[in-house]
Amino acid sequence: MEGHIAADLYGEALQQSSIESFPTSAADYALNDAQDNGSDDWYNEDGDSCEWESERIRNQFVTVGYREGLMAGQEASAQDGFNIGFKQSVSAGYNLGIVRGVTSALNCLPNELKERLVETEEERDKLKQLHKSVNSLSTSDALKLFHEEQTRTPAMQTENPKPDCTQISDGVLKNYYKELQSLINETPAIEACLDMMKQ
């Protein structure tokens, strides 16, 4: 019943609008073409706006692509720099960690056990001093020292192509490790323990 009421009320209006909006014969098509004044872009008053819009979108995509390319290049460059820095610093950091670990472990031992491992008082004092020195060095200070050593080393190599061992002073970080190695070489009990850790 409701369908009949809607058809009765709106039927005539729908039929008239469909007849007016859609031409049904060739004469109606010709009449519509004549009303358009022969222009092909009856759907758009300004034909240049399509070209302008496509140009704007193309420029936008070019800009976005350019930015993404720059960002990818920067990330690759940063990653390369990180890889180079890591290769240069990993051994220095590892050696500093060994010095801190060994001296801290020896410092925590009871005095009787320290006396058995390190025979002379002089060597125990050196290990204690090395422990204080290494633990007073913060991570940021160690990083600064490493950076200073790295910037100083190439300058020395360019000044003296064949450097004399007495002229080059090793960096502080390298000295810590060398000092620990010399102390360990003098104490065979500690050396045996370190050899077991390496395996």
Detailed description of the structure:
Residues 19-23 and 161-169 have low confidence and may be disordered. With 199 residues, the chain is mostly helical. Helix 3 (48-108) packs antiparallel against helix 5 (121-136). The radius of gyration is 42 Å and the shape is elongated. The protein has a domain at 90-198. It has helices at residues 2-21, 26-35, 48-108, 111-117, 121-136, 139-159, 172-186, 188-198. It comes from Olea europaea subsp. europaea. Keywords: Coiled coil, Cytoplasm, Nucleus. Residues 65-102 form the Essential protein Yae1 N-terminal domain. This is Essential protein Yae1 N-terminal domain-containing protein.
Integer average pLDDT: 74
What gyration radius follows from the Cα positions, in whole Å? 42 Å
Helix coverage percent: over 70%
**Percentage of residues in DSSP E strands:** under 5%
The number of helical runs is: 8
- Which overall shape is indicated by the principal axes computed on the Cα atoms? elongated
Cα-to-Cα separation, first versus last residue: 94 Å
Unreliable runs, pLDDT <50, ≥5 residues? Answer: 19-23, 161-169
Number of strands: 0
Largest sheet: none
Q: What is the N-to-C succession of helices and strands?
A: HHHHHHHH
Estimated structural class: mainly alpha
